Amino acid sequence: MQRSEYDIHVATVDYLHALGPKLKSHFFHVPNEGRHTVKYRVKLKRLGVKAGVPDLLFVLPGGRLGCVELKSDKGRQSKAQKEFEKTCEHYDVPYVLARSTEEVVDALRQWGAL
Questions:
Q1: What is the C-alpha to C-alpha distance for residues 112 and 85, in angstroms, rounded to an integer?
Q2: d(Cα 106, Cα 114) in Å, to the nearest integer?
Q3: pLDDT (tens digit, 9 = 90+) per residue, 15-59?
Q4: Residue 70 burial (CB < 10 Å; 0-12/13-18/19+)?
């Protein structure tokens, strides 16, 4: 059975919360998707909301930022997400496209957050 991106996201966040102090990072989600009125979308854009921002952002040890884009098995990055990934590569910001909680945990280990 294929899991949705939402299910993977929630399972990952639940797992990260369960790690408690073992997780040496602070993480958050930027809610930059959803249906809004034109007026509200304009307001969000003026506030700095950008397409392509990853699903989870991690403040890593040493003051670095790590980015996780979550996708289902068949999910594909949008053009904006690919561009954001390239920006991260340009600035040497860790970025991973993950399709499971396990892939997120592996990235966090590589980044020194676990």
A1: 20
A2: 9
A3: 999 999 999 999 999 887 777 788 988 888 898 888 899 999 999
A4: buried
